[in-house]
Amino acid sequence: MSLRSSPERSDRKKELLRDDGPDLQDFISGELSEKNKWAEYKGTLKRQKGERLRLPPWLKTEIPIGKNYNRLKNTLRDLNLHTVCEEARCPNIGECWGGGEYATATATIMLMGDTCTRGCRFCSVKTARQPPPLDPDEPYNTAKAIAAWGLDYVVLTSVDRDDIADGGAEHFAKTVTNLKERNPQILVECLTPDFRGDLAAVEKIALSGLDVYAHNVETVRELQRHVRDPRANFDQSLSVLKHAKKVKPTVLTKTSIMLGLGETDQQIISTMTGLREAEVDCLTLGQYMQPTKRHLKVEEYVTPERFAHWEKVGSDMGFTYTASGPLVRSSYKAGEK
User: Which residues define the annotated binding site for [4Fe-4S] cluster?
Assistant: First the structure.
C-alpha cells in the first residue's frame, strides 16, 4: 500500500502540492535505467481497426506491496470495508478507472459497498440497479480503522448509488466527520460521484470538514457519451467541482483525465482549459488500461514524453498541481510509501 505516517503534519497541504513531491518512481519498482530504451521502442502505439495493442515497456512494471499491505487488508475485511482494488501488480492501478484483475490496493477506501448503479464502459466494478443497502456502521468503522492506522492522508471514494435519495452524500459526510473527530490532523480527500447533479449533496460533503474535494471528469468532453454512463456528462461533473469550491473556497478541488481513448490534442487542451476556468486546483492525467475484454479497447498508448508535455501544459495553465504519467492515477500524491 502507498502509506506513510509522518510526525510532522502541520503543513501537509503544502507538502501535498510541492514540486519535489513523489514522482513516477514512487509507483514502480525494478530497474528504471531501462527507461532510456523507451525512445527506441518500435511497437505500435495506436490501434488499427480489428487489432489489440501490446503493452509498451514503460507499463511493464512491478507494483510494490508495502510492508503494511496484509495487515491493513485484513483489518478492512474484519470491519467489512472495501479498498477500491484488492489485488496488486495492475498496470491499471485500479482507482475508479477500471480495477481489472490485477488492480492494486492504495490508501483509498471505497464506501457504500462494491456494487455500482452505473455502467461506464471503462470500469469493471460490479453493477446492479438495486445494490445491497448501506451499512449504517460503515462511517464509524471506517473512521475507527483509519484512525488506528495513524495515517496522515486518506482518500475516501465510492461507487455511484443512484438508488439512494442523496446518492450517499450523508454517508460520506458522516465518515469524514467521524474521522476528523478521531484525528483532527489527518488530511481527507473525498473522490465522489456526481450525485446526478444534486448540488445539495455536493455541499453536504464539501462542508463536512474534508481537505480535498475530488471528482473525475474521466475523459475529454467529446468522448463523454462514448466512455461514461449516459447519466454522467462533462458539464454535470464540472458543476460538482465548481459548487464544492463555491461553498468552501479553501478546499482543494481535483479531477482526473484518462488518455489513450482516442482523444485529440486539441480536445485535451480544451478540456484542461474548461477545468481551469472552473478553478479546479489539481489535475492528474494517466494512461487508460482496458480492465477486461468486454470494456473499451485502448486506442493509443501515450508515451512518457507526451505525458511530460501535458504536465507542463497544466503547469503553464495555472493548475496548482499537475501530475501526468502513464502510471499516474487519481489518488496520485495522496500518500507516500
Answer: 85, 90, 96, 116, 120, 123, 331
Comparing CA positions, the residue from 57, 49, 53 lying closest to residue 30 is 57
Report the C-alpha gap between 244 and 266 in whole angstroms. Answer: 27
Closest CA to 240 of 199, 271, 191: 199
Per-residue pLDDT at 329: 76
* Under 8 Å between Cβ of 46 and 299: yes
* Segment 7-14 long-range contacts (CB within 8 Å, at least 24 positions apart): 9/152, 9/185, 9/186, 12/152, 12/153, 12/187, 13/187, 13/211, 13/252
Q: Which residue has 484542461 as its cell numbers?
A: 272
Annotated binding-site members: 85, 90, 96, 116, 120, 123, 331
User: What three-state secondary structure class fits 286?
Assistant: strand
Instruction: Tell the residue number behind the cell numbers 438508488, with chain if given.
Output: 163
Helix (H, G, I), strand (E, B) or coil at 283: strand
Q: What is the pTM of this model?
A: 0.80
User: pLDDT tens digits, residue range 286-317?
Assistant: 999 988 888 999 999 999 999 999 999 999 99
Query: Residue 133: CB partners within 8 Å, gap ≥ 6?
Result: none
Domains of the chain, earliest start first: 46-325 (3.20.20.70)
Helix pair angle (265-277, 304-317), 10° resolution = 30
